[in-house]
Each structure stands twice: as structure tokens, then as C-alpha cells.
Amino acid sequence: MTNTTELPESRPVSSGAEGLSSRANDPHAVDMFEVARIAQGVDVAAFNAFGSVKLVAPAKVNLYLDIGEQRSDGYHEVTTVMHALLLHDVLRMKTAPAAPGAGLAVDLVSRSCEGLAPLDVAPSDNIVSKAVRRFAAALGRQQDETIMVSIEKHIPAEAGLGGGSSDAAAALVGAALLWGVPADDALIEETARSLGADVAFFLHGGCACLTGVGDVLDHKLTPMNGPVVLIKPEGGVSTAAAYRAFDKSPSFVSADQRAIALRATRAQDVPLINNLVPVSEGMLPALADIRTWASSHEDVDASLMSGSGSAVFAMCKSIDAATRVAAQARSRGWWARSTTFGPSRAASVPVR
């Protein structure tokens, strides 16, 4: 994530550089692979009943991450180019009755798939629960109701892949659908931006350049669709800790490199740069092992750590090459998953 943990609970927001109305007829809204079913122990039928919604929440990588000087308000200037992936979490949401006077409750269950560790956060503290409550408050909604949420996790936590932020964006889309809020209501994006710097990106998806503290849309780029492998060692890197380490020993990106990133209109023209790599590798040395291994692999064209880590993405020559790289990474004891770049965003899909 980019600066997400730095954002305060009550940060003032605006509607962003671009509203949500352009998403209403976006043909890419459901252009995603169906990768899994709800894990064992979750009653899928309960979420397939009338009135439920199903949503996809894609992962992202930072093709370019440029952390700048710390500002007087404690935030850092950030220029970043994010790209969505087809790898995604799946959310199911529906409303249920609540006792008179109970107000809003969020009943959340999360299941981790494919060897991922369970989320180490209480359901009430999950960013999805916060998103639903904050959106209701923004709407002035005071109904007595329970929002039931099931999250099927395919995106690892503390990986720099934006899983939590994407889940929050999907939850906002789902809550809007359940509550009959128009897709172009500015409060959706305003709430997203109040939750963290990455959350609003997932409402648009694809590939985008962001500035400010990583939350202001500068411009969209034409996305790529090539194969990529995500590789993650055990352990994670706290974004807040990475920023503190960066402040002690900053390494800034040159103005020339930043200009190239800001001028790029296609994802493939973005320079692969991340100036948090030195501090994150210092905190988790296994990241350096992955970088060295991936950069020397004959099937990998380029690789870079995403966000503050702890995942490295490796851009591969073909789907077959990505499959080989992922298998070999797993044989070395790392979590690995092959996927592709894409125009994905947080969106609803047919319930089935």
C-alpha cells in the first residue's frame, strides 16, 4: 500500500480528479477470471439468496513508486503508477434484519485460500467493516440492519498488493448496490479516499498515475495484459515502519525519472522504480533473495518489489514461463501465484 497507514481516520476528502459515472457502462467491470468458490465452512447458499451481491476486489502492483519529502503535515509526497491484476478476492454481501434500535452492524467472516495465513485482525477492525460503517455515516443512514459480508482471500496481507484497500473499495460498491445508492454518487469516492490512499484507485482500476500522498488521480494509462508472477516470502513489512526507516535514510528518485513516469501514457512505458526497496529489504532480507533470484531467471523480463513489500512481481515472457517461475518459486519455500495485468477494478459480478 502507498501511505495508507498514514492517513488519519478523519482526513478531509474531495470527490477526486474523476467521478464514478464513467464506470457505469464500463465493459471491463466483469472482465475477470472466476478463480474460486467460498472456502469450506462458509454457507454459500446463504449469500446466493435474493438480495445478495457478489463482488471482485483485484490486487495491484506499483510499477513506479516515488516517495518524496515529508511534508509539514507529516505526510509524504508520493508519485506512483499502480496497475491492477486479474488476481482478486471475492466478497459476498447481503442485508439481514436487526432488532429495533440496534443500528448498523457488520457481520464479517473471512476465509484465506491457497495456503494464505488467516487475517490477524478482528472483524470489527477489518477495513471492510470500517468502509461500510463510514459510508453509512456519510449517507446519514440510520436504519437498524446487519450487513453480512463474506470475504474469500486470495491476495496475501502485508504484501504491497493492496488486498485490504481493494476489499474496502468492493465493499463500498456492494453497500451502494444494497442501499440503492447511484454508482455516480460522489460519497462513494469520498469515503474511499478517507479510508486510505489506495482505496479510491480500485474504484477505477486499470492503470493510473497518482500524486499528492498517492491519492490524487493525475492521469490514466493504457493498461497491459501480460503475464506476471507474484512472489512473497514468509513475514511482511509494515508500511508505517518502512516510512519511518525511509525517513532515517531517504533515497530520492531523480527529477528526470519522475518526469518519464509522469509523461507515460502506456503502462509498458513506465520506468520500474521503487525507492522503498532498500529499506524494505533491510527489514526483510528475504526480499533481496527473491529480487536476486527473479532478476537472474531466464523466463523473467523484469521484476520489482510492490509498495513497501513484501511481494515481488516478476514480468514474464509468456503464460508458460510464468507457470514455471511460480512453480520454481514455490519449490524454494516462497508463496507464489501467476496472474496477468488487466483493466480490473472493484466491481459486482453475477451471483452464482
UniProtKB/TrEMBL annotation:
ATP binds at P156, A157, E158, A159, G160, L161, G162, G163, G164, S165, S166. Pathway: Isoprenoid biosynthesis; isopentenyl diphosphate biosynthesis via DXP pathway; isopentenyl diphosphate from 1-deoxy-D-xylulose 5-phosphate: step 3/6. The keyword Iron-sulfur does not apply. Belongs to the GHMP kinase family. IspE subfamily. It comes from Paraeggerthella hongkongensis. It catalyses: 4-CDP-2-C-methyl-D-erythritol + ATP = 4-CDP-2-C-methyl-D-erythritol 2-phosphate + ADP + H(+). It comes from the Bacteria. Residues 279-332 form the GHMP kinase C-terminal domain. Catalyzes the phosphorylation of the position 2 hydroxy group of 4-diphosphocytidyl-2C-methyl-D-erythritol. InterPro entries: GHMP_kinase_C_dom, GHMP_kinase_C_sf, GHMP_kinase_N_dom, IspE, Ribosomal_Su5_D2-typ_SF, Ribsml_uS5_D2-typ_fold_subgr. The active site is at K60, D198. One of its GO terms (molecular function) is 4-(cytidine 5'-diphospho)-2-C-methyl-D-erythritol kinase activity. It is an enzyme of class 2 (transferase). Its EC number is 2.7.1.148. NCBIfam families: ispE. Keywords: ATP-binding, Isoprene biosynthesis, Kinase, Nucleotide-binding, Transferase. Residues 126-206 form the GHMP kinase N-terminal domain. This is 4-diphosphocytidyl-2-C-methyl-D-erythritol kinase.
